[in-house]
């Protein structure tokens, strides 16, 4: 197995210094014990000759190591490192992270990426140290352990909620990953979860759990973002400060409720000092699901929505010396880059939001959801709507679409053209070729660079997307010409999207006006 070259000396220095900044990016396999650890593991560090370093937890398992019971390397939140890349391996990793192997299998994933199964496996093994099946198994195992610890689900239900096909497969995988049977794993007291307000049916399962993310986490900023972009029928701000969001899964439309009062009242949730580096916090979320099998897709969507795999320390280090961004990041060290809950819905909403206020855009998006929601979808809460269907939008003539939503004729044609591209196979997911998507979107009449980059930023999850022509962004930079704004941003690669979010947030904090 030819793994990518990791600088052994740098990795060993990080492990010797228990540097938490390396957690989740490098894993230490100890040949004398057969376990793998975080670099920050508090255990006594092994001799260099007993150390092997790996780029992923799945690679450790593939090499015969099991997770350390002391430092719990599987509990480290994910990273967005793969999101900064657009090559085949990065696209495959993002799709596996989103559950593609569970949904369509390795043949389906290879087909999506237009390569053979053999080539896909070879590329993943060469760069990550594990093939697609091992990466998917490790993902399921880590999710299952979190469910065992965070919920009161019976072990059998945990198996199916985490995406395992059988209890036997579940048990074998957990023993391989952790060296212990699932039934022997320690269960914590069930956390007091967020409320499950709303008229939900008893037939739908509800999970209350905490989703882990790295500190600091600017809960105030992201809650304000979600509230400002709440779509009628798809999002709701409840009386107790909880935000509720429709989350679409293979089984139907789930609802995620995020308990912001409990989160923002916690000391470790505040965007605080560098002392928070390496710590993780839990985001209280209650999920009402169509079926338990929808748990993992719903959790992944919430993680994307709240950008829970971001590493604030990495962003802070990248911008620390920048005269424009350095002071902004110092004021908001835990600011996140919210993603789209549903990429297609977001693309439609962005088209509707062109050249109108944020309030008007929300109104139009609500009309779209109400008029074009899939009528056959299972929805766990009658107060919410399923996502709008591209096929239903395409089926309506442009003139009827214009009248139904209150659009201009040109905007209705653009919406239909986008629906035609999506219905024809344009994919807006982690496995998409971002350059190809940008090119196809730009070829649709009525879609310009601003819309293309905004879709790349939130729907494709590209942390380097940069809508240089955005009016508010350019005002925050002092209103330079378009080319000058693009030039200024070159030094912010590969995190120009985070730079954009910081510039927008600072402008909004000054009480100026709306932003995307």
How would you sum up this structure, described in words?
By secondary structure, the chain is of the alpha+beta class. It has 4 domains: 8-75, DNA Methylphosphotriester Repair Domain, CATH 3.40.10; 81-150 and 153-184, Arc Repressor Mutant, subunit A; 206-309, TATA-Binding Protein, CATH 3.30.310.20; 343-462, Endonuclease III, domain 1 (Orthogonal Bundle), CATH 1.10.340.30. It is 45% helix and 9% strand. The chain has helices at 8-16, 57-62, 88-97, 100-112, 117-128, 132-150, 155-161, 167-178, 219-228, 260-264, 295-306, 312-319, 325-331, 343-352, 358-372, 390-395, 398-405, 409-423, 434-442, 449-458, 471-476, 482-489, 496-509; strands spanning 27-30, 35-37, 51-54, 66-67, 206-214, 235-237, 243-249, 252-258, 280-288. The strands form 2 sheets. It has a 5-stranded antiparallel β-sheet with strand order 5-9-8-7-6. Strands 3-1-2-4 form a 4-stranded mixed β-sheet. Strand 7 and strand 8 form a beta hairpin. Helix 6 crosses helix 8 and helix 17 (398-405) packs across helix 18 (409-423). The longest helix is centred in the N-terminal third of the chain and has 19 residues, at 132-150. The chain is globular. Residues 90-188 form the HTH araC/xylS-type domain. Keywords: Activator, DNA damage, DNA repair, Methyltransferase, Transcription, Transcription regulation, Transferase. It catalyses: Hydrolysis of alkylated DNA, releasing 3-methyladenine, 3-methylguanine, 7-methylguanine and 7-methyladenine. Its EC number is 3.2.2.21. Its cofactor is Zn(2+).
């Amino acid at each position: 197995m030819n793994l990518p070259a990791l600088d052994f000396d740098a990795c060993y220095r990080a492990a010797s210094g228990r540097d938490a900044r390396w957690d989740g990016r490098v894993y230490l396999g100890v040949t004398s014990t057969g376990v793998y650890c975080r670099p920050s593991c508090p255990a006594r560090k092994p001799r260099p000759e007993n150390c092997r370093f790996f780029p992923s937890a799945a690679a450790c398992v593939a090499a015969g190591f099991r997770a350390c019971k002391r430092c719990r390397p599987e509990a480290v939140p994910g990273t967005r490192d793969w999101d900064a890349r657009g090559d085949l391996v990065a696209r495959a990793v993002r799709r596996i992270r989103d559950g593609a192997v569970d949904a369509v299998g390795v043949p389906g994933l290879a087909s999506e990426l237009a390569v053979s199964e053999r080539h896909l496996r070879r590329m993943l093994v060469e760069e990550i140290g594990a093939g697609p099946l091992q990466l998917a198994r490790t993902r399921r195992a880590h999710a299952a352990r979190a469910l065992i610890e965070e919920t009161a689900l019976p072990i059998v239900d945990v198996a199916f909620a985490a995406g395992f096909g059988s209890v036997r497969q579940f048990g074998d995988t957990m023993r391989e990953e952790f060296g212990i049977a699932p039934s022997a794993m320690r269960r914590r007291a069930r956390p007091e979860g967020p409320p499950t307000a709303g008229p939900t049916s008893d037939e739908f399962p509800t999970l209350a759990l905490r989703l882990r993310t790295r500190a600091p986490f600017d809960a105030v900023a992201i809650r304000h973002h979600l509230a400002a972009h709440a779509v009628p029928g798809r999002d709701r701000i409840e009386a107790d400060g909880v935000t509720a969001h429709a989350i679409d899964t293979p089984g139907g439309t789930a609802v995620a409720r995020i308990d912001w009062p409990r989160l923002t009242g916690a000391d470790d949730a505040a965007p605080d000092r560098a002392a928070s580096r390496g710590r993780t916090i839990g985001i209280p979320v209650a999920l009402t699901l169509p079926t338990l099998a929808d748990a993992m897709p719903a959790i992944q969507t919430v993680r994307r929505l709240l950008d829970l795999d971001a590493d604030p320390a990495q962003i802070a280090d990248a911008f620390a010396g920048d005269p424009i961004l350095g002071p902004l990041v110092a004021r908001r060290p835990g600011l996140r880059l919210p993603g789209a809950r549903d990429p297609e819905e977001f693309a439609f909403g962005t088209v509707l939001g062109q050249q109108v206020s944020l309030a008007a855009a929300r109104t139009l998006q609500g009309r779209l959801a109400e008029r074009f929601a899939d009528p056959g979808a299972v929805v766990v809460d009658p107060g919410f709507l399923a996502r709008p269907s591209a096929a239903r939008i395409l089926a309506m003539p442009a003139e009827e679409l214009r009248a139904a939503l209150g659009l201009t004729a040109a905007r209705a044609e653009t919406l239909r053209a986008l629906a035609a591209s999506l219905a024809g196979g344009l994919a807006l997911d982690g496995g998409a070729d971002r350059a190809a998507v940008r090119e196809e979107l730009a070829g649709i009449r009525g879609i310009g660079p601003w819309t293309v980059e905004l879709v790349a930023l939130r729907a494709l999850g590209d942390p380097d997307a940069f809508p240089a022509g955005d009016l508010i962004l350019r005002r925050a930079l002092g209103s330079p010409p378009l080319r000058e704004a693009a030039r200024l941003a070159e030094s912010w690669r590969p995190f120009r999207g985070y730079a954009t979010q910081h510039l927008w947030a600072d402008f909004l904090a000054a009480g100026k006006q709306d932003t995307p």
